[in-house]
Amino acid sequence: MARTLLRVPATVTRGEVVEIRTLIQHPMETGFRSGENGRMLSRDIIRRFTCLYNNRPVFEAELHPAIAANPYLTFTLRVDESGILAFTWEGDNGFSQTETRTLTVA
């Protein structure tokens, strides 16, 4: 399982626009580089990132080989109700990881 860093405020006021920051540790191997033995390294990238808020999509990104290792994504979200944020990263070789955080409207 890859290490993730998520910055989500614990509490917000109704209607507030908050910044969400995500980072996942992943090598993002493009498949265009050769290894020590001279053979091409297999492609291994995160292809898709999705954030759901109370099971509704609020942010999606399609990633490509040009993205650097350890992709960092940030976006804003207008919050009207308390709920669960579900962050999902999907990639090559069957990679999939989901993390959740609770967002409380005070």
Biggest beta sheet summary: 5 strands, mixed
Flag low-confidence runs: none
- In the CATH hierarchy, what is the superfamily? Immunoglobulins
Distance between the termini: 33 Å
Instruction: Count the beta strands.
Output: 8
Strand content: over 45%
Put simply, the count of helices is 0
Q: Which sequence of strands runs across the widest sheet? A: 2-8-7-4-5
Radius of gyration: 16 Å
| Architecture per CATH nomenclature, i.e. the level-2 architecture | Sandwich
> What's the overall geometry?
elongated
What is the total number of structural domains? Answer: 1
Helix content: under 10%
Order of helices and strands: EEEEEEEE
- According to CATH, the fold-level topology is Immunoglobulin-like
Q: What is the typical, i.e. mean, pLDDT?
A: 95
**Structural class label:** mainly beta
- CATH first level: Mainly Beta
